[in-house]
Amino acid sequence: MVASYVVVLFLLIELLISGAEALSMDYYMMSCPFMDQIVSNTVNQALRQDPTLAAGLLRLHFHDCFVQGCDASVLIDSTEDNTAEKDSPANLSLRGYEVIDTAKKSIEDQCPGVVSCADIVAVAARDAVFWAGGPFYEISKGRKDGRRSKIEDTVNLPAPTLNSTALIKVFGQHGFDARELVALSGAHTLGVARCASFKNRLSNFDSGNDVDPTLDSSFSRTLSRACSAGDDTQVPFDRTRNSFDTGYFNALQRGMGLLSSDQTLFTDPRTRPVVSGYAANEAMFFLDFQQAVIKMGLLDVKEGSQGEVRLHCRRVN
User: So what CATH class is 25-156?
Assistant: First the structure.
């Protein structure tokens, strides 16, 4: 009888331990109950001062999750003997690091050594979307921070020149279907792209076309004038760069997608109906986006001893 009791007690303890490590909405309920509020306050204050950071925080989450999973590896600084992810050409334009640093410091003052940088990145992206007028969604927490950040790992980030077939393949490798690809691409309703990312569409496009034929002719001339100022010139993805809305999909319908990887979604018959559906129905886009971004936030997460809780987001412990 005693032996049976001991076995049952051991199993209960084991379940509690494993449960404590699993992701959940209430992961910090006892250990840091104001985590969400601290991140929200930090994000809202930053966006009041600079609304363009909404795009930066969302992009930071995407670039983190698509490389080694959602483990805040994109935040780690390079050292003398290691070039980190953030110094990859694909990540040089990332923004919002200081917002994550500020939130982390405030949380460490309240709950030292408890909340991971990976969870802060995920919550900050969620709050940025909501601040910009997008949907609010609950996310599970309990991600641990990774200990690896290497520039070579960023090779699989989707390039702005990819066509829909390549995009469907890349996103498919992470478990997303074509509809989820379009929903996540809708994040480009926020922010800008640099001319270096799309200048290939404006001249010497291919053997038969000087300008990308899927690009609206008037828009191409506007882009050419803007980009005459240099590769670092920034152009908004749509007319409402700081608002999370359907403007991005409306732009694709008019041949005014900025990147090749944007316009290809309307050109390809496999994804065009989804683009048109989102352009006409904001509620549908919001619902699909929140489901897809929640799924993205669970990519290859590290739990328990697979990672750590960094004391400073820019370096491993």
Answer: mainly alpha
Going by the annotation, the residues of the binding site are 64, 67, 69, 71, 73, 85, 158, 188-189, 238, 240, 245
61 is catalytic: no
What is the per-residue pLDDT across 206-264, written as a single tens digit (0 to 9) for each?
A: 989 999 999 999 999 999 999 999 999 999 999 999 999 999 999 999 999 999 999 99
Tokens linked to 293 = 């971004």
Where are the domains positioned within the chain?
25-156, 164-297
Selected catalytic residue, list 61, 63, 174, 312: 63
In the DSSP assignment, the letter for residue 76 is P
- Nearest of 106, 92, 96, 94 to residue 50 by alpha carbon: 96
Report if pTM > 0.85: yes
Amino acid at the residue 266: F
Residue 267 identity (one-letter amino acid): T
Tens of pLDDT, residue by residue over 208-220, are 999 999 999 999 9
Decide if domain 164-297 falls under CATH 1.10.420.10: yes
Strand partners, 82: 79
